[in-house]
Each structure stands twice: as C-alpha cells, then as structure tokens.
Specification:
single chain; mainly alpha; Growth Hormone, Chain: A
C-alpha cells in the first residue's frame, strides 16, 4: 500500500485541528442555547441558521471553487471563521450571549463552511491519485469524525462545565491554526474556469441534472440530512430532560456517536472494495433505518449512545462511497460547481429539518423525532430503488 502524499497529510492535520474546535462548539452551542431558553423551537432556530447558508450560497461558492485556487479559498475561509468565533467568545465572556447572537454567529460560520467544505472535497483529487481516493476519503472521515464527534465534544463539555466561554475560544484558536496549515498547501495546477458566474453555475446545474445516478444520490442525501436534523436538533433536550443526564454525559453521547463514524471511516472503503459499490450504498441507506426507529424509545443514555454510534457508522459508509464516486466521475474543471449543486440539493433541506424537529418536539415530545426520521428514510429508499439500482449497477466494482 502506497503512502499518501505529504500535501494530503497536511490537509488532514488541518481538518483534525479544525474539527476538534468545531466538536467542542457543537456541544457548547446547544448547552448555551438551552441555558438561554427551554423552547425547542428557539433551540432549533440556531441549528437552522447554521445550515441555511448551504441553501443560499452553495451555487456561487461552487463557481468560486472552480475559478480560484482552492487551497487559498480554504485558508481564507478558516481565517474568517476564526474571527467570527473569536467575537462570539468575547460576547459570551462579557455575558452578552443570546439566542439571536448564537443564530447570527452560526450563520456566519456556516457561510464560510460552504466555501471551505466545497473546496476541501474538490481539492482532494488534485493531491491524491484516483486509485487512492476511497482510502484517502476513508482516512479523512475517520480523522475528522474522531476530532469532531469524539475528542471535541468530550473536551467541549468539560470546558463548558468550567466556563461557558472556553469552548468558543478553543474553536477560534483551532480555525486560526488550520488556516496556517492550509496556507502551506501547494497551489493547484488545473486550469481555472473563466466563465461568467451565471454561466458557470448553469454548467454545474446542467451537468448534474443530466447524470441520473448522482442526481438520485443528491435527492436521497437531501432526505437523509433532513431526517438527521429532524432527529438530532433536540437531542440535547432528549438527553437532559428525558434521560436526565448532565452536560458531561451529553458530551459522551456525542462521543459514542463519533465511535461509529470513526469505525466507518476506517472500515468502509474496505467494505466497498470487497462487496462493491451497489451493495455498500444500499447497506448504508438501509442500515440506519432501524437505528433511527429505535432511538426514540431508548430507556437510558447507554442504549441511546449505541444507536447513535450505529447511525454514524452508516452515515460514514454513505459518505466514503458517494464522495469518492463524485470525485471519480465529475471532470476536474467542473468538480467545484457540480459539488455545489449536489451539496445544495443534499444539504438544502437541513434548515427545514432543524425547524421541523423543533416543532415535532414541541407538539409530540422529544422522543418522537427519531422514529419519524426513520420512517421517512425508509420510505425514501423504497421510492428511489427503481432509479438507483440500474444506475449503480453500471458503476459496480
């Protein structure tokens, strides 16, 4: 097995540093939100604000990623995120935190993440040989899952218990360190797109619209992530109000979820190589459904943690296979724009999922969201099978 390039290891190091801070804030933001309000609709508003930029900004961000140096866009996005997180930390330290401020900061960080995330996926084929894409994506997902949902939440819950400002300060510092690492990546050698913004966006829309497999996967991703937000946006209330656990145990629940993601990142590229693309995609889609259906009935935090780990495992399986598939199929000069359309379709419903989760919890109770999400995911898979099976068979490995 060949060693992955040094540029990839630098990219991975930046992602790990960044995601430790993000993981710490992922547990701190909902804890701070429920300290400010117990209304699940307001708690869900913060999560919706974080994902709204994907719907609003994905298409122009994709054109930027194909037009400008991707490494340069990544480190500048991280530097701006460091500024936003630093200002939020100052506000929390001064006791000026509010739901509106949290929502505004979440939107700003999410806007930068749209550019960063698109560029991060598009840059990988520039620095890793195509034959190693499955392995590189698997290692990347394992590393970021370890940092974001294993190390970060544990650190964030401990820091939040000590002082609410500390996780936000850590996030600002992690963005700054990541920006420094990314600034040292080599500049891309691919030809840059010079098409006007409107034409560039249209080219990406047309290309994805004409590719049945990727179009179907994007729509399935939209349903999957809608359901993920629907179920998880009020997880903090399920943990603290129904299961009666504190901030530290809530952080450990997120850590348990991370274990599944890490295992998936390490193992799933091998599963795809052994059983093929079609069975792996179907296994990823179907495997999460029973875990969602059961999670709402969890009698304690231990059972809930196991089910969250299973959900993360299958989510990681989906990510490794479908991201590698896009990187292999889409032409390099179009990858940023096609990724942006794919991500807009796939992630565009997440703000609605977050808001829907808040209203479901308010009207039906915080346990209801998980089985509803599981039923929606199962129904979407059944509906998509007639389109999915013929397309995926052509890409069977």
């Amino acid at each position: 097995m060949t060693r992955l390039p040094a540029a990839y290891r630098r990219l991975q190091a930046a992602a790990v540093v960044d995601n430790v801070g993000d993981g710490a804030v992922a547990v701190a933001v909902p804890l701070l939100a429920v300290a400010l309000t117990r209304d699940p609709r307001l708690v869900s508003l913060v999560a919706a604000a974080a994902t709204l930029p994907t719907l609003l900004l994905s298409l122009p961000a994709g054109a930027l990623v194909d037009r400008y140096d991707r490494a340069g866009l990544m480190w500048r996005a991280q530097a701006l995120q460091a500024l936003v997180a630093g200002l939020l930390a100052v506000a929390v330290a001064l006791g000026a935190g509010s739901v509106a401020l949290l929502a505004a900061a979440a939107f700003g960080l999410g806007a930068c993440e749209v550019v960063f995330g698109n560029a991060a996926q598009a840059i990988l084929p520039e620095i890793v040989p195509e034959a190693d894409l499955h392995r590189a994506n698997g290692q990347q997902f394992a590393a970021t899952a370890t940092a974001r949902t294993f190390v970060g939440p544990a650190v964030g819950s401990l820091l939040f218990a000590a002082a609410a400002v500390l996780p936000f300060g850590l996030d600002a510092a992690s963005f700054a360190v990541s920006a420094v690492l990314l600034a040292r990546l080599p500049r891309g050698r691919r030809p840059l797109s010079a098409a006007p913004l409107g034409k560039a966006v249209t080219e990406g829309l047309r290309w994805l619209g004409g590719h049945r497999l990727l179009r179907t996967l994007a729509l399935l991703l939209a349903v999957n992530l809608f359901c993920f937000q629907l179920a998880n946006v009020t997880l903090v209330l399920l943990a603290t109000e129904e299961l009666h656990v504190g901030a530290r145990v809530y952080g450990l629940l997120l850590t348990a979820s991370a274990l599944g993601g890490v295992a998936g990142g390490v193992l799933n590229h091998r599963i795809a190589a052994r059983i093929g693309m079609l069975p792996t995609v179907l296994l990823a889609l179907a495997g999460a459904v029973p875990a969602y259906l059961a999670a709402g009935s969890s009698p304690d935090a231990y059972v809930l943690g196991v089910l969250l780990a299973a959900i993360s495992y299958f989510s990681s399986m989906w990510n490794v296979v479908t991201v590698s598939l896009r990187q292999s199929i889409v032409p390099a000069g179009l990858l940023g724009r096609v990724n942006s359309v794919y991500r807009m379709l796939g992630l565009g419903l997440t703000p609605l999922g977050a808001l829907a989760g808040g209203f479901v919890a308010h009207d039906l109770g915080v346990r209801a969201a998980y089985p509803i999400a599981g039923a929606l995911r199962g129904g979407a898979l059944i509906v998509a099978l007639p389109a999915l099976l013929p397309a995926l068979r052509r890409f069977q490995r």
